[in-house]
Design brief:
Elements lengths: L1 H14 L30 E10 L23 E12 L4 E14 L3 H4 L7 E9 L7 E7 L9 H10 L9 E8 L2 E10 L12 E5 L9 E2 L5 E2 L2 E2 L4 E6 L9 H17 L8 H14 L10 E6 L2 E4 L27 H4 L3 H18 L2 H22 L29 H24 L2
Parallel strand pairs: 1-6
Antiparallel strand pairs: 1-2, 2-3, 3-4, 4-5, 5-7, 6-7, 8-12, 8-13, 9-12, 10-11, 13-14
Length: 443
């Protein structure tokens, strides 16, 4: 397949072809759209939320992580030989252990979420044996998100639920928990699946993370990508997430060449057969719904190649500057982001995008009810969490008010009550759907 792509690219370069419309890949059948969140080994017919107990060999927290404010989450080593138990309270009021294992590993994760709020940090965990904690398939790799900058604690969870209602092949699932490490209560976390290529998630030849925020993890640089003032830009740092370079140290060059060839097709030829239009449409609509403009930087943007075809996703990272009413003056925020300027030049892609919006809109319209369900689930946990870890002032904020004074806010609900922030999030969804109705139809 890649040889054929190379020949086609060469022909396009020789002829100087700059195709504005393409013949898209056929639409894929819709997948089952029921949310899988929390439906598995961790039961849902319980009181409150599960409690996760992790114990390290030293009994003093995660070695080298909790004790060091400036510890680098990107290069840290695993704390090994840990134990993990997940407890729930049944409807009858009985404490029950629904999962227990030894040999677990834990380490820090994240960029801004790691370095700027060291009191409540996110973690990666790796089980000794695969387990299906969430009813989504067995895997070893899970994570614990702190959601420290989100007043509602719900932004990531709700955005990923929106993504699960699309045609994207796979979206991480998770559930809210109370975390304890060596007996120390860490309060509310989101226990979820780590983005990973495996049979229970999705299959790929190569999985890429495009992210300008972490040059230390860069494996190569894109040739194209975002647009700036009407001109092609790019040079986006790429980390190869799959294959694992520990197991396949020579995978970078073929992975880079595969992406480069598809980039050339995007900018110089008929890319229709080699780009999964449905995934790029649905991924775009999820990010527009949430108001997530990070693909413009880009940050936390995932794409993968399978069988010579480029797919968008999985979706990830929605706690920063999302679900804000009147965000970006009611405009589309990602038209120039990560290949989309080129994709949107094609009338056929714009028509597919409009069709996908007509399918997804009614699914998104019921998200406010989902928000209410999740808010009720964490209400008691959230109160304790907010008293211990208030999200205001936010050290990441560079926003200033009309007088030039720093607001110290990111999502602008930091000083609201929990219910006020939840109601505002729901209003942002409803308002954005109305805006997208006009914006997408006008393309």
């Amino acid at each position: 397949m890649l040889m054929a792509v190379t020949i086609f690219v060469a022909a396009c370069q020789k002829l100087g072809v700059d195709v504005e419309d393409v013949t898209l890949r056929p639409e894929r059948p819709e997948k089952g759209l029921l949310s899988a969140t929390g439906a598995g080994r961790i039961p849902t017919d319980i009181q409150g939320i599960p409690r996760v107990y992790i114990n390290t060999p030293s009994k003093r927290g995660v070695q080298g992580i909790d004790s060091k404010r400036n510890y680098d989450a990107n290069v840290n080593e695993w704390t090994t030989d840990c134990t993990i138990e997940i407890h729930v309270t049944t409807l009858a009021g009985k404490d029950s252990i629904c999962y227990s294992a030894k040999g677990m590993k834990i380490r820090g994760r994240g960029n801004s979420t790691w370095t700027h709020y060291y009191r409540k940090r996110p973690y990666n965990i790796k089980l000794d044996k695969k387990a299906d904690l969430l009813g989504t398939g067995k895997t070893k790799r899970y994570l614990l998100l702190a959601n420290w900058m989100d007043r509602t604690l719900l932004r990531n969870d709700v955005a990923l639920e929106a993504a699960r209602r699309t045609s994207l092949e796979w979206t991480p699932s998770g559930t809210f928990v109370e975390l304890y490490v060596d007996g120390d209560r860490r309060y509310n976390y989101w226990l979820g699946e780590k983005i990973n290529v495996e049979e229970t998630h999705f299959m790929a030849d190569y999985l890429y993370s495009l992210d300008v925020s972490n040059p230390l993890k860069t494996n190569f640089i894109t040739r194209y990508g975002i647009w700036n003032k009407g001109k092609k830009a790019g040079k986006i740092p790429v980390e190869l997430e799959y294959p694992d370079l520990d197991d396949f140290p020579d995978a970078v060059e073929p992975a880079k060449e595969a992406l480069y060839q598809l980039e050339e097709l995007l900018y110089k030829g008929d890319w229709g057969p080699f780009v999964d239009a449905d995934s790029f449409c649905d991924w775009f609509l999820v990010y527009e719904l949430t108001g997530n403009a990070e693909p413009n930087h880009p940050k936390s943007v995932n794409m993968y190649i399978r069988g010579g075809v480029l797919y968008a996703g999985p979706a990830w990272d929605f706690d920063f500057g999302t679900f804000i009413p009147d965000i970006n003056n009611g405009l589309l925020v990602n038209q120039n982001a990560v290949y989309y300027k080129q994709l949107l030049r094609a009338p056929s892609f714009r028509e597919r995008l409009k069709k996908r919006w007509s399918v997804l809109k009614p699914r998104f319209q019921t998200l406010p009810a989902y928000v209410d369900q999740r808010a009720d689930l964490i209400r008691e946990s959230e109160e304790d969490n907010h008293m211990r870890f208030p999200c205001y002032p936010n050290p990441l904020s560079t926003d200033r008010d009309a007088n030039g004074v720093y607001t110290r806010m990111i999502n602008y609900d930091e000083q609201m009550t929990f219910q006020e922030a939840v109601d505002r999030l729901k209003f942002a969804i409803t308002q954005r759907i109305e805006q997208l109705d006009e914006l997408i139809s006008a393309l």
